[in-house]
Design goal:
15% strand, alpha/beta, 11 strands, 2 domains, 5-stranded mixed beta sheet, 6-stranded parallel beta sheet, binds nicotinamide-adenine-dinucleotide
Length: 349
């Protein structure tokens, strides 16, 4: 069934959703602004081969709302947005990204954009030809964004281990990483360096082999990652992977990874809690790139990744402590806190 867009916007508090179309380049997509009540919304550009426009719109809505939650909990004075593009073989990539740049420029600073799945330095360079409201991937920009994310996820994971066991004790830990892309590889590298055992599932065989040649990770068949006995399951591929079918297979004590929207629904966070598995909310621990980008755009600061990781771990510890004190799922606690902050900004609370 199609998305009832106005109902969805009203239900989830969206400001605006713009449908994008450019005949010349084949550009098709959506730009969602969930919240710009503090002046600006931030969100990257996802390019993906969506099955249809409904799926793309749904993703745009979910991702932009999650960005608002991420900004709110990270204590950043900005809101969330997202741009999704429907990928297809005949898309004129540089042209489409330049057209995106024109659209972002017309928003005159209400929306800042940057990388996400399918959008790397080359694509961002095309956007930057038309607007300055985009993260510069080069030396004049804020620095490596995925590194900031990987460090935040790593420090979040370490904080969760300390919360559970009082120590990190890496040499005794097994971590299963799903996806060895920018974030998954960065996380695996940090874990291996500290002596943890890392099992990794990656669907791109060439990528998997390249990372395994460089880092001491044990490759496992994709889709077997859910069944591995381990301390931590770290989803670093796409979202929507924890649902009724996968959740019961998990044999870990912690779920902590970089992917956005890992839980299909909030009730899947409740199920993890019922099973005694601690879930470090994705929008808390994967905020590293956002923090780095926002601090650079708003304050001109190039924040070191370790400082970003410490900031993320600090927020996570507050969430985990409250969740423990109230015996509630951490994802619920984090979501509630984010929504009450957004309501305060909007003057609704
Ligand atoms: P990426 O595209 O570099 O890496 C994703 C990797 O996952 C790819 O290598 C892909 O082949 C692999 N993959 C896809 N499906 C898989 C599956 N079912 N099993 C195993 N591997 C699979 O992306 P990234 O930048 O590393 O981002 C990873 C996740 O983290 C995404 O969900 C992204 O939205 C989220 N995220 C990234 C950042 C960032 O700074 N890059 C920030 C916040 C959130």
């Amino acid at each position: 069934m199609g998305v009832h867009i106005l109902d969805a916007m009203a239900r989830e508090g969206f400001e605006e959703v713009i449908a994008l179309h450019d005949r010349a380049t084949g550009l098709r997509g959506f730009l969602g602004i969930h919240d710009s009540s503090r002046g600006r919304a931030f969100g990257g550009i996802r390019r993906w081969s969506y099955l249809d426009e409904d799926q793309a719109l749904r993703d745009c809505l979910r991702l932009s709302r999650a960005m608002s939650h991420k900004c709110a909990l990270a204590g950043l004075a900005v809101g969330g947005g997202k741009l999704v593009l429907l990928d297809r073989p005949d898309l004129d990539l540089p042209g489409a990204y330049r057209a995106v740049g024109d659209i972002v420029e017309r928003l005159a600073g209400r929306f800042y954009t940057g990388p996400d799945v399918g959008t790397g330095p080359d694509e961002l360079a095309a956007v930057a030809e038309r607007t300055t409201f985009v993260t510069d991937p080069g030396p004049r920009g804020p620095g490596e964004l995925s590194e900031a994310t990987a460090e935040g996820v790593f420090q979040g994971l370490a904080a969760t281990l300390r919360h559970l066991d009082g120590e990190e004790d890496w040499k005794q830990r097994t971590v299963v990483v799903q996806g060895l892309g920018e974030v998954g590889r960065g996380l695996a590298q940090r874990l291996v360096t500290r002596g943890a055992r890392v099992l990794a599932a990656e669907v791109d065989v060439a990528r998997a082999e390249a990372v395994a040649a460089e880092l001491d990770v044990e490759l496992i068949d994709p889709a077997t990652e859910y069944d591995q006995r381990c301390d931590v399951f770290a989803p670093c591929a796409l979202g929507g992977i924890l649902h009724d079918l996968t959740l019961t297979r998990l044999r870990c004590r912690i779920v902590a990874g970089g992917a956005n929207n890992v839980l299909v629904r909030p009730l899947h966070g409740d199920r993890l809690h019922e099973r005694g598995i601690v879930y470090a909310p994705d929008f808390v621990i994967n905020a590293g790139a956002l923090i780095r980008g926002v601090l650079f755009h708003l304050e001109g600061r190039r924040e070191p990744v370790t400082a970003i990781g410490e900031r993320i771990a600090g927020v996570l510890v507050e969430v985990l402590d409250r969740a423990r004190a109230e015996d509630r799922p951490p994802a619920r606690v984090a979501l509630e806190e984010a929504e009450s902050r957004i309501a305060r900004w909007r003057g609704e609370a």
